[in-house]
TrEMBL record:
Keywords: Endoplasmic reticulum, Glycoprotein, GPI-anchor biosynthesis, Membrane, Transferase, Transmembrane, Transmembrane helix
Subcellular localization(s) per the UniProt record: Endoplasmic reticulum membrane
Native species: Erythroxylum novogranatense
Keyword check for Transmembrane: yes
Gene3D superfamilies: Alkaline Phosphatase, subunit A
Protein name: GPI ethanolamine phosphate transferase 2 C-terminal domain-containing protein
Chief site of localization: endoplasmic reticulum
Location of the GPI ethanolamine phosphate transferase 2 C-terminal domain: 518-955
Biological processes per GO annotation: GPI anchor biosynthetic process
Length: 973
């Protein structure tokens, strides 16, 4: 067998990572392209049937263009002033109720004026379904363009670019409308240079729940008194920010809703009620971009997140039936064509929505049918762009040649169905035009138009963008090659390491013959997980798989401990547990901690999608009160610091160094405890300047202490040129010393032990600051699990293979990821925590903090591999040739770096293939695609974690060897 040198291993690993990165990038941008859109803007041709009078928009002055549109459309604008009030994150059920039932009494009392408008028939509201991803930027684009954007808009939400596609604001600007915007600066990024006045605020700085809305309202009285604008956009962010901080039931929610109600009251009293004597009629449209989950997050596709609001106030009619004004449902994209027709501009080209009925109920029959005709022409143009071969004229000729009726029941291919439905409505409309006296005929015509519009909308909304097959195939092939390379390297490493243990294991089959049930199960976990990826339900509830697998692994470890005990009478059980040097006691205690902590973590959060409403430990603690929760957070912080200092104290041979590292950890630890105490006594503490300053100081202390320890420790560690005897090898362990090692690895292992503890303790302290308070206890339990696993692995050697131990640690990190409340929906991402310690919004820093919060558990496990290397079984390094620099690094760092890369590569490649196979699945955008974003982010997490482990090991060993050589040279001189 060709020898696998350290250089070869490094080059092959880097090559595999490079190939995987290229393949992943190619696949992502091939599978999630920015959705294609028709270029240009709708113009005079919009008022003619598709295929006739097609011409580009005339370059006319705004007033002439406005008159031309009115002349061609035949529908005079009903409103020449529109106030669009966006209440970010407001669920429609807060205002309209749910399932035909009114909203809760406290919610109704929070918005009394708005409820009075609804009950008196002066307003009509709809549940507007928002398409995923339910984040602000793509939802605003949907409301003004009527188009459903690409899935990757969720990423562009943090770096908004100007909207170049045809949209409502652009159409209004071309006819001379003057626009003013107050609120979320996303509007300014989407539509630069369109607003004659504006005052934008950051939508991402969620700590601000007061000033962010006051900045909007302070201009409101002045703007309402002005008559130089036609469109006033008010985007209030407070409700969304309150949700992110405290959830739907936050104590701040009711006051914030009352504040929004007062804004509606002011607008209605100052503009709508006075418009009788005003030639300029004003329409107030209150909308929300998305809803929110119980914990206040959004981004996924659950009902709570997609249930947004659209409310019309100031229509020329009174709604007699309160129920019909509150329980109706529309799509969010329907806002675009509705406002376009009401304001007298063409419907944007890429709109997939259709007219909301209520604003047009007061229209005469001819105007109402004309509006539906214009909407059907626009959608038919968009359908023809997607189906170039679609020709309804050919459909008519074929139908007549076959002796079929043009109208009637429509069936067949989508082209035939759409043409049939369109011609049904068109024939009924022209029949009505020839004799306008048939009232029932109007109802049938309206129903026919809506049937065509709804069918076209459904087909366009779910149509999958054509995927470049060649590009996707290249991406999958590259990831497969990378996976094969990493898997081969792991097998190669295993045969190299374990061939010395069993000389008879000359081939792979003999090597595999001695596998035990633990090793088989570790590989079986991957197989089971890959098989479950094809089920949307298993993707939504992935946490059950990881919790079940890791719990079963702990039970198998317990079984192995019991099997290793000598068969003696129960009388001698205590002596058996004590064993030589208490080894059996350590193993039993570590397994006990793993089982108990694992079960607690399993019940801490009822994660996932379908069962998140079920009771769990976190919900019970939240109900117990803030004082009880604060005590748990404080106890968790003390436990983390105490456990870390205890682990450091076990390195008795480096007591002074451990004391210094302990001080470096203790100082920020005490600051963290101080922050926890103050935060618990003042709910508004996080929003204060003092809290921001303290948090920034803690971040600085943690960074300096961690980096200082990792960089400076190898240079300060005492080194010796003489060979190390068994008595000198006081190796770093958590519990005891193993005198069997004969190679000079003391400085290397002791340095890694202290550096690894500095890594994980600093990481845990950081998470105590960033995570929600309810997650403080899981952080301490995860630390306990990791240290217990280290103790068990150390005392179980050489029975366990190293790749099995590293794989189990990796699985522990994935189970912990879901134990912290994460899931495969974007709604569980903690946006509020991404602004802790920031005095102003920064997309880069917020993105980094969001990543650190989400991947707290996997990163913690990866960082703990530095400690694992210092405790690993190195009996195979006894031969002098193995002490050579390159070979030693290969054997010490090989498995801890390759196993996470290999496992992640298998899961990444498998799920990429699943995603490709499921590209036409009903839940492709709501279930499988969000999961793939998590898979990609996990890959980045593994890359960063493995890099830290490898860099730490190589740097430490290089510095120690350099110092050893310098010391040897000086002695010779």
């Amino acid at each position: 067998m060709t020898e696998l040198t350290c250089t070869k291993l490094t080059l092959l690993t880097l090559t595999a990572i490079l190939i995987q990165s290229i393949g992943l990038s190619v696949f992502v941008f091939g599978f999630f392209p920015v959705k294609s859109a028709l270029s240009g803007a709708s113009g005079p041709e919009s008022f003619f049937p598709p295929g006739s009078h097609e011409r580009p928009t005339d370059d006319l002055p705004p007033q002439q263009l406005k008159s031309l549109y009115q002349e061609l459309s035949g529908i005079p604008p009903l409103f020449d002033r529109i106030i669009l009030m966006v209440i970010d994150g407001l669920p429609a059920e807060f205002v309209l109720g749910k399932g035909g039932k009114p909203p809760r009494s406290d919610l109704k009392e929070a918005m009394p004026y708005l409820q009075s408008l609804l009950s008196n028939g002066l307003a009509v509201g709809y549940h507007a379904k928002a398409a995923p991803p339910t984040v602000t930027m793509p939802r605003l684009k949907a409301m003004v363009s009527g188009a459903i954007g690409g899935f990757l808009d969720v990423a562009f939400n943090f770096n908004t670019q100007a909207l170049l596609d045809d949209n409502l604001l652009g159409q209004l600007f071309r006819i001379g409308w003057k626009m003013v915007m107050l609120g979320d600066e996303t509007w300014l990024k989407l539509f630069p240079e369109l607003f004659m006045r504006h005052d934008g605020v950051s939508s991402f700085f969620v700590k601000d729940t007061i000033q962010v809305d006051q900045n909007v309202s302070r201009h409101l009285k002045h703007e309402l008194s002005m008559d130089d604008w036609n469109l006033l956009i008010l985007h209030y962010l407070g409700v969304d920010h309150v949700g992110h901080i405290g959830g739907r039931n936050s104590v701040l929610m009711i006051p914030k809703l009352f504040e929004m109600d007062e804004v509606v009251k002011m607008i209605h009293l100052r503009t709508i009620l006075n418009q009788v004597n005003d030639a300029r009629k004003t329409l107030l449209v209150v909308v929300s971009d998305h809803g929110m989950t119980e914990n206040g997050n959004h981004g996924g596709s659950s009902y709570e997140e997609t249930d947004s609001l659209v409310l019309f106030i100031g229509l020329n009619r009174i709604i007699d039936d309160y129920a019909s004004a509150t329980i109706q449902s529309v799509s969010q994209v329907d806002i675009t064509p509705t406002l376009a027709v009401l304001s007298g501009v063409p419907i944007p080209k890429n709109n997939v929505g259709f007219l909301i009925s209520a604003p047009f109920d007061s229209f005469p029959d001819d105007k109402k049918l004309r509006a539906l005709e214009l909407n059907s022409w626009q959608l038919l143009r968009l359908v023809k762009a997607q189906l170039p071969d679609l020709s309804c004229r050919n459909f008519v000729h074929v139908a007549r040649a076959n002796g079929q009726k043009i109208t009637g029941n429509c069936s067949g291919h989508i082209e035939e169905v759409l043409c049939c439905l369109y011609l049904n409505a068109s024939d009924l409309y022209h029949s009505w035009l020839s004799n306008e006296t048939f009232g029932e005929h109007v109802t049938a015509t309206v129903a026919a138009y809506y049937e065509f519009l709804k069918t076209s909308n459904e087909w366009l909304s779910r149509r999958v963008t054509d995927k470049p097959v060649g590009v996707l195939t290249f991406g999958v092939a590259a990831m497969t090659i990378s996976c094969l390379i990493l898997t081969s390297l792991i097998i190669w490493m295993a045969r190299t390491v374990y061939s010395g243990e069993k000389q008879q294991s000359s081939n792979l089959s003999n090597w595999m013959h001695g596998w035990c049930i633990n090793e088989i199960f570790v590989l079986g976990i991957i197989l089971i997980f890959v098989m479950s990826m094809g089920s949307s339900s298993m993707v939504e509830e992935e946490q059950y798989i990881w919790h079940f697998m890791i719990s079963t692994s702990y039970l198998l470890l317990l079984r192995k401990v019991i099997q290793s005990l000598p068969v003696e009478s129960a009388v001698n059980l205590l002596e058996i547990l004590r064993g030589p040097n208490g080894v059996n006691t350590y193993k039993f205690c570590s397994i006990f901690f793993l089982l108990i902590s694992g079960r607690i973590l399993r019940g801490w959060h009822q994660g996932g999608v379908n069962w998140a409403h079920l009771p769990d430990i976190s919900k019970w603690l939240e109900q117990a009160g803030s004082h009880f929760l604060r005590s748990i957070v404080l106890v968790s912080g003390i436990f983390v610091i105490s456990l870390g200092l205890f682990a450091l104290s076990q390195l008795k041979s480096r007591r002074k160094f451990c004391q210094v590292v302990g001080v470096f950890i203790l100082i920020p630890g005490l600051l963290v405890l101080w922050h926890i105490i103050v935060r618990g006594s003042n709910e508004l503490w996080l929003s204060s300047h003092g809290a921001t300053t303290l948090l920034q100081a803690i971040f600085a202390f943690l960074g300096i202490s961690t980096i200082g320890t990792s960089v400076g420790l190898p240079w300060l560690m005492p080194v010796s040129v003489s060979s190390c005897s068994a008595q000198q090898s006081n190796l770093s362990t958590l519990v005891s010393v193993d005198p069997e090692y004969k190679s000079c690895l003391v400085e290397f292992r002791d340095s890694l032990y202290m550096m690894g503890l500095a890594y994980i303790l600093s990481w845990c302290l950081l998470q105590l600051l960033l995570q929600q308070p309810i997650n403080a206890m899981p952080i301490s339990l995860l630390l306990t699990q990791i240290l217990s696993t280290m103790v068990y692995s150390y005392h179980s050697r050489p029975r366990h293979k190293e790749w099995v131990e590293v794989a189990l640690l990796y699985y522990t990190g994935m189970a912990g990821h879901f134990a912290l409340g994460n899931s495969n929906t974007l709604a569980t991402i903690d946006v509020a925590g991404a602004f802790i310690g920031l005095s102003s919004y920064s997309s880069l820093l917020s993105g980094i903090l969001m990543f650190l919060i989400t991947y707290a558990s996997p990163t913690l496990v990866l960082l703990s591999l530095v400690i694992y290397i210092s405790l690993k079984d190195d009996s195979y390094l006894a031969s002098p040739k193995n002490v050579e620099f390159g070979n030693l690094l290969k054997l010490m760092l090989g498995f801890p770096c390759l196993i996470p890369l290999g496992l992640n590569s298998v899961l990444l490649t498998a799920y990429t293939i699943v995603l490709l196979l499921m590209r036409n699945h009903l839940f492709i955008w709501s279930v499988f695609s969000p999961k793939y974003l998590y898979v990609c982010a996990t890959t980045v997490c593994v890359y960063v974690g493995v890099f830290v482990v490898a860099a730490t090991g190589m740097y430490t060993y290089a510095v120690l060897m350099f110092r050893r050589k310098v010391l040897a040279t000086n002695r010779i001189r």
